[in-house]
C-alpha cells in the first residue's frame, strides 16, 4: 500500500456509499484526502468518521456537473495539499424510467454528472497527476457499462461513455507515469437507487418497484467494493470488476454479445425471487423467536 499510503487522493461522491468507504480505507492507510460531494451534510459526516485516523482531510462541496466548480476544486485541492497522486471519479446518479418516460433534461442531467463529471475531473487534475513519480486515475463505470438493460437507457449510455473514455485515455497515457483503471461494480449496497430521480413521465409506483428490486439484487457492501478498487489500483489493473455478479455478466456478454439480455433477465429474476423468499423466511423466524 506504499503508493496509496504516501500520497494525496481526490475522491468525488465521498458523502456516502463507495466514496465514503474509499475515503475511510485510504485514510486508514495513511493517505491525505481531498473529498468532494454535492451533499454537504454527507460530506461532513464522512469527514467526522475520519477524525480518528489522523489523516489530513479537506472537504469540498462540488457539483461535478459544473465545469467551473471542478476546475476550482482542482485549484483548491492543489493549494491545500500541494500535490495529487490519485483521482477517483466516483460521483454518480441514477434515473427511474424507460426512454419514453424520461425527458431530455433528465437525460442531460444524468450525463452531466456521470460522464462529464469524470471528463472534467480528468481535465483539471491530470496536469497535477503528471507531475508525480507515480499517479493513477480511477473512473467508475458499471456493469451497465458492459450490458444495457431496459429501463436504463440514460444510465447505460453514461456508463458506456465512461468506459470508452477511460479505455481511450489509458491507451493515450500508456508508458507515462499515470495509470488508468475503469471500474465495473455489480450490485453494491448503496442508496443510489433510493435517491434516483423519477423521470418526468415515469409512474411513481415504478420507483418503489425499482428500489425494491435493486435492494434484493445488490449483494456487495461498499466496503468490499472499496477494498477491491484500491487493490486494483495498487496492482495497476486496467479493468476492475466488483462482485460475482459483475464477473458473470462480463462472461455472458462476451459469449452472447447480441443476445445476452434474455438469459440475464431470467437469471436476475431467479436471484431476486430467491432473495425475496429468504427475506420472507427470515421474517417468519424472527416472529417465532419473539414469541
Structure characterization notes:
With 291 residues, the protein is of the alpha/beta class. The protein folds into 2 domains: 2-255, Rossmann fold; 258-291. It contains 10 helices and 9 strands. It has helices spanning 2-5, 17-29, 40-50, 67-81, 104-129, 153-173, 204-217, 222-234, 244-255, 261-290; strands spanning 8-12, 32-37, 57-61, 86-89, 95-96, 135-140, 178-185, 197-198, 239-242. The strands form 2 sheets. Strands 3-2-1-4-6-7-9 form a 7-stranded parallel β-sheet, sandwiched between helices. A two-stranded parallel sheet has the order 5-8. Helix 6 links the parallel strand 6 (135-140) and strand 7 (178-185). Helix 2 packs parallel to helix 3 (40-50), helix 2 crosses helix 8 (222-234) and helix 5 (104-129) runs parallel beside helix 6 (153-173). It is globular and about 50 Å long. The model has no long low-confidence stretch (mean pLDDT 94).
CATH architecture of the largest domain: 3-Layer(aba) Sandwich
Q: Spell out the helices and strands N to C.
A: HEHEHEHEEHEHEEHHEHH
Q: What is the fourth-level CATH superfamily of the largest domain?
A: NAD(P)-binding Rossmann-like Domain
> What fraction strand?
5-15%
Q: How confident overall, as mean pLDDT?
A: 94
Which structural category fits the helices and strands?
alpha/beta
Strand tally, please?
Answer: 9
Distance between the termini: 50 Å
In DSSP terms (H or I, runs of 4 or more residues), the helix count works out at 10
Indicate the multimeric state: single chain
Low-confidence stretches: none
Helix coverage percent: 40-55%
- Give the biggest sheet: 7 strands, parallel
CATH class of the largest domain: Alpha Beta
| Radius of gyration, CA atoms, in whole angstroms | 19 Å
CATH topology of the largest domain: Rossmann fold
Count of folded domains: 2
